[in-house]
Amino acid sequence: MHGWFDVADKLNTKVVAAAHEKGFDLEIFTADVKLADPKFGDFQANGALPYAKRTQSNPREVANSLMGTLASDNEIQSNFELSIAGPGFINFKMKPSFTLEWLKTFSSEKSLVQSAMHLNEGQTIVVDYGSPNTAKQMHVGHIRSVVIGEAICRLLEFCGAKVIRDNHLGDWGTAYGKLFYAYKRHLDKENLDTDPLGELERLYRIGNEVAENDENALQECRDELVNLQNGESENVELWQLVNEYSIKGLKEVYGLLDVEYDHYLGESFYRDKVDQVYEELLKCGIAEESQGALVVFHPEHKRFKKQPFIIRKSDGASNYASTDLATMLYRLEHFKATGIIIVTDDRQKDHFEQLELTTKKWFEKTNREMPTFNNVMFGKITDDQGKAMKSRSGEPIRLIDLLQEAVERAYLIVKEKNPDLPEEELRSIAKTVGISSVKYADLTPNRTSDYVFSWEKLLSLDGNTAPYLLYAATRIQSIFRKVNESSLDSMESEASSFETAEEQALARKIIEFVGVIHQTIDTLRPHTLCSYLYELSGAFSSFYNADHVIVDQPDVRARRLLLCRQTLIILKMSLNLLGIRTLERM
Ligand code: ARG
User: Fold this and answer.
1) Does 351 reside within a domain?
2) In 97-155, at which residue ranges do the beta strands (DSSP E only) sit?
3) CB 543 within 8 A of CB 503
4) Fewer CB near the terminus (10 Å): N or C of the chain?
């Protein structure tokens, strides 16, 4: 089982050999074989043009002389048709028999897993995603880190990595003073049980407002915080309670999103681990004191030679940078991480760049292995005016409300399509469709760009949406409900070579899958896989509209069923990699 790049590599070798035979100067010549635009062929060697330019010869003649040798190669002759296009590109079109043999290697999930396993085998990667600040609701903006992070975890696992899902909660900060002040005076216990995050957020707002208008209250809030920092038991217990409630509220949303963490090691976990960071960084000469604070400069960097990375505040307190440095060390030593990925919005870019630079120097000086580090960044979700999404009352929209609305909206659509399904099944389908649609809408745009949230678009049955793909998968499943077992068993042995343009085009799309996974994992950009799935479903649709699957001729039926099966395997598996559940019926 191989990806198209393996075939490209092989062709590359053959083109170079042909050039050698023709006496080309191999110092200058490169074959440059790539996957081609299907309009022209399947692979294309682009090397004749630059070579002709360098040697001042005619590119078509250069291509022609290579063609002669290539055409007499047995393997090429039986698998490809050759032609020269444009000013001198050599095109390789796969013969249908070759496409079929190749396609057969995609016959099971297992073979697909094997094709990607080696990419990250042996690696242990900590993925830090979600990671919201506690004692607050998750709002719409919080969804991106969770959804993109989870897809990345699944993709990495698919590629053989051991993944550790860590929720690095912001659970230690100045907000607790105000929260405790209000908690001790205005708690609505019932609300705390039913809507923990809602209640904590309400209390924080009260604390904040009182502190703004009343000097005495402000002082009391400060005292509450100092008591917590000094380890006074009442406040420490309260802090623990608040965190338990926070995590309970968060887990409700994670449950809806099908996300389960291995660890919740928030900022507070690292409080007692920062002293080692200060000591080592000072000793290594990486950090220096500046106006009472401890800072790191990077003289080799354009901005960070002047812009300090403050790792201890002038009042001696730790901050986001100190705990993050301690986190890097902990992940290396405790989890034996070979890779660390942190999924956050793009406003924290500088912080993570400084974190990476500092850690690299620190680990080098202390003879530790630096794990690969990636800050997987993403842009904002906006309304159609390009502004942050707000509810009608002007508040940020709660994530849980958004997800519930998605399910309600999906329910109406599913019910309209299948008025006769039993209510329970309708509800369950609506849940999958609703949640998947929101998730998929978050994954389809390139993560670094902002995107506009639109219910109409994300729930549409047309376009690159979850409903479209889920529906495509159910449609293929319904084909298999119509055929008997025996024709499935003999599919591979009976299949004849592809004949129609639609068969060949779909087969070619299926074959691209492995390359797409490589590209997605290389860039940690799930939208690459989303675009591919949309193209695959499009190719399937064209095929399905043009060619009957259940026909009388056994060999034709077999090869068409084969195409259906491979499409289905890839669709289901990829959707699952993106964190999306598939359906039997829709
Ligand atoms: N709590 C941060 C936020 O809400 C994200 C934390 C990301 N992880 C980290 N190790 N800094 O933006």
Assistant:
1) yes
2) 124-128
3) yes
4) N
Boundaries of domain holding 486: 399-577
State the distance from the centre of ligand 1 to the C-alpha of 186, rounded, in angstroms. Answer: 29
The DSSP 8-state label assigned to residue 317 in this structure reads -
Separation CA 51–CA 28 (nearest Å): 7
Query: Mean pLDDT of residues grouped by 10 in the chain (586 residues)?
Result: 81 94 94 89 94 94 93 94 93 94 85 86 97 92 97 97 97 90 96 92 94 95 90 94 94 96 97 96 97 97 97 92 98 98 97 98 98 97 89 87 97 93 96 98 96 95 96 94 83 94 95 94 98 98 96 95 95 97 91
Instruction: Give yes or no: residues 149 and 194 share one domain.
Output: no
572 and 478 share one domain: yes
Q: Establish if 64 belongs to a structural domain.
A: yes
- Give residue 484's pLDDT: 80
Domain of 552, CATH number, reads 1.10.730.10
| Enclosing H/E stretch for 289 | strand 287-290
pTM above 0.90, yes or no: yes
Q: What is the pLDDT of residue 2?
A: 67
Kindly give the number of the ligand 1 atom that is closest to the alpha carbon of 327: 10
Please list every protein residue whose CB sits less than 6 Å from any atom of ligand 1: 128, 131-133, 168, 170, 324, 327, 342, 344
Closest ligand 1 atom to Cα of 169: 1
- Residue 397 · residue 141 · CB < 8 Å: no
Token representation of residue 309: 């990375």
Strand partners, 310: 295
CA of 397 to the centre of ligand 1 (A): 20
- 148 shares a domain with 221: no
**Ligand 1 centroid, distance to 267 Cα (angstroms):** 9
What is the whole-number distance in angstroms between the Cα of residue 89 and the centre of ligand 1? 49
How many structural domains comprise the chain?
4
From 126, 127, 128, 131, mutation site for ligand 1 pocket: most ligand atoms within 8 A of C-beta: 131
Atom from ligand 1 closest to the CA of residue 343: 7
**Are 455 and 514 in a shared domain?**
yes
Residues 6+ apart with CB under 8 A from 405: none
